[in-house]
């Protein structure tokens, strides 16, 4: 009997979840898409917009600061077709080598002697501003990585009441309230109140993970009379996912809100940036974040402010409620699509390419999807490790760069030589794919997803671009002479298409516009119009 009861409980839960997902998708019809309202490149440009994440997790340059490196590379980035550059967090970290995600002072961009250095990991404030100017001179916008969830590296300890909670269910207390001592006082003595006079203390935070009094690690909810507990407007993973790491910021506190709203306007004015990448949003109060974006846009010249949010989950069912909640005010990284790429690279020829877009945001809501293959968090050894192997890296980039849906973001680690994750073959192919996006991948798209290990699609072109045909495969044992995708390229009848990678390879197009297009040994082939054939 008990087994039947459990079966019906599981069945009911599954039905409920499916109904909620259907309802969320239905209600999305009344939510405007975000990307069409945002600035993705130079005003008035008809070029395909493309973003680059200009850093890896351990990014350092041997001969110059990172900001100087960016300034030097700006012309080359523009030549490859990039229109936006996602910068690493420019703020002062808790230590000189910190990446900025260990945020100490958002108002210090490498200007003040704090945390053992004037410079940040990336360089000085002056070098940052010169890099931003160099990008603008090349018609590229910059995007600020906004780390608003937490602080680290406090200047002093404070004692206050707190309750230890279950890390797997933060709504469950596992100890009674007691005094704890934590690093929660931020004085910013090196800045002396310049730009912002706010000094932070335990009243501005909701939780921490270390009690100095008991020398105990855990998740502690600060519980003084002035505290409201965890925010209810966060992800419900682990019961309540308000706390992530460090000293967790209380975004409901009026002083916190005023300081962060002011910082948003200041950082955009100071750098000339066009928008934000919002870090770790599942851990922050959604109402605050929505107001943060709306206030940032409510200034002259910022109506098209760009925003992309990191909600890390490969489950589209969990992402959709967030897309609804933000009402078209932010785009989202397509983590489910990245997960498909990762799985495809692990599965090899056993992966069915016809399903590569299933369960992705770009398939359901292309106007909200920022597509990517890998980033600093997915690198080998990182907490979200899910690195797409080289056997599928080129195919994945072809899918985000050459299709008409979504807004693609390219990872520095795949493009530039580095000691962490660089592959020369991937970089070489990626540069060709970027140039193909810039020159050929325009116009309507028609898919030919008919074979398990070999799929294709056609971009029909527009009045200024001829378009292209793309073939992808994931089985190195395919016979390239027989495994072809028959596709119609439209009005290019009687012409010949040639390989962008190997000009000696050609495909004749019949008078009805059809051609049989093979892939290549590398798994990616791009075909472009060359001329009439006899």
Describe the model.
It is a single chain. The chain is α/β, with parallel strands linked by helices. It has 3 domains: 31-148 and 257-439, Alpha-Beta Barrel (TIM Barrel); 151-249, Elongation Factor Tu (Ef-tu), domain 3 (Beta Barrel), CATH 2.40.30.140; 445-532, Golgi alpha-mannosidase II (Immunoglobulin-like, Sandwich), CATH 2.60.40.1180. Helices cover 27% and strands 24% of the residues. It contains 11 helices and 25 strands. It has helices spanning 2-27, 66-79, 125-137, 254-271, 286-297, 316-325, 335-347, 361-364, 390-401, 412-415, 424-439, and strands spanning 51-53, 84-86, 92-93, 103-105, 141-146, 150-151, 156-166, 169-173, 178-185, 205-211, 216-222, 247-249, 275-278, 306-309, 331-333, 369-372, 407-411, 445-451, 454-459, 468-473, 484-488, 495-499, 506-508, 514-518, 524-532. The strands form 5 sheets. An 8-stranded parallel barrel has the order 1-2-5-13-14-15-16-17, surrounded by 4 helices. Strands 6, 7, 8, 9, 10, 11 and 12 form a 7-stranded antiparallel β-sheet that branches. The longest helix has 26 residues, at 2-27. The model has no long low-confidence stretch (mean pLDDT 94).
């Amino acid at each position: 009997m008990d087994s039947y009861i459990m079966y019906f409980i599981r069945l009911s839960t599954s039905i409920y979840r499916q109904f909620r997902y259907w309802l969320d998708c239905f209600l999305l019809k009344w939510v405007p898409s975000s990307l069409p309202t945002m600035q993705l490149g130079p005003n008035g440009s008809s070029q395909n917009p493309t973003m680059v994440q200009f850093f890896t997790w351990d990014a350092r340059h041997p001969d110059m600061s990172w900001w100087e490196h960016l300034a030097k590379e700006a012309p080359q980035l523009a030549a490859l077709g990039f229109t936006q550059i996602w910068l690493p967090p420019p703020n002062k970290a808790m230590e000189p080598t910190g990446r900025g995600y260990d945020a100490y002072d958002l108002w210090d961009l490498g200007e003040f002697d704090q945390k053992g250095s004037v410079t940040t990991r990336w360089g000085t404030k002056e070098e940052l501003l010169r890099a931003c100017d160099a990008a603008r001179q090349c018609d590229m916008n910059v995007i600020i990585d906004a780390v608003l969830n937490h602080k680290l590296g406090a200047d002093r300890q404070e004692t206050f009441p707190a309750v230890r909670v279950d890390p797997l269910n933060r709504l469950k207390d596992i100890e009674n309230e007691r005094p704890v001592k934590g690093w929660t006082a931020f004085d910013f003595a090196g800045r002396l109140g310049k730009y912002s006079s706010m000094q932070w203390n335990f009243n501005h935070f909701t939780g921490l993970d270390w009690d100095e009094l008991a020398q105990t690690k855990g998740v502690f909810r600060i519980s003084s009379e002035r505290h409201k507990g965890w925010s209810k407007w966060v992800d419900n993973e682990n019961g309540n996912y308000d706390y992530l790491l460090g000293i967790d910021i209380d975004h409901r506190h009026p002083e916190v809100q005023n300081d962060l709203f002011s910082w948003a306007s200041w950082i955009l004015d100071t750098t000339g940036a066009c928008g934000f990448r919002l870090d770790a949003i599942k851990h922050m109060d959604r109402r605050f974040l929505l107001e943060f974006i709306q206030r940032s846009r409510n200034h002259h010249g910022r109506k098209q402010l760009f925003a992309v949010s990191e909600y890390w989950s490969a489950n589209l069912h969990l992402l959709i409620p967030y897309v609804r909640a933000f009402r078209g005010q932010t785009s989202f990284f397509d983590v489910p699509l990245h997960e498909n790429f990762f799985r495809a690279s692990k599965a090899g020829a056993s992966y069915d390419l016809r399903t590569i877009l299933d369960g992705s945001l770009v398939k359901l809501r292309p106007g909200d999807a920022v597509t990517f293959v890998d980033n600093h968090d997915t690198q080998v050894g990182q907490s979200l490790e899910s690195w797409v192997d080289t056997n599928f890296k080129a195919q994945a980039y072809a899918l985000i760069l050459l299709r008409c849906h979504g807004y693609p973001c390219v990872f520095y680690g795949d493009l530039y030589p580095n000691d962490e994750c660089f592959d020369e073959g991937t970089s070489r192919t990626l540069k060709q794919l970027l140039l193909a996006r810039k020159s050929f991948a325009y116009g309507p798209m028609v898919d030919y997803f008919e074979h398990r290990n070999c799929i294709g699609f056609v971009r029909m072109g527009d009045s200024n671009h001829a378009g292209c045909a793309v073939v992808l495969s994931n089985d190195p044992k395919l016979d390239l002479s027989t495994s072809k995708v028959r596709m119609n390229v439209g009005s290019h009848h009687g012409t010949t298409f040639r390989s962008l990678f190997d000009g000696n390879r050609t495909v004749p197009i019949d008078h009805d516009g059809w051609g049989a297009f093979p892939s290549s040994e590398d798994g990616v082939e791009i075909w472009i119009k060359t001329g009439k054939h006899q």
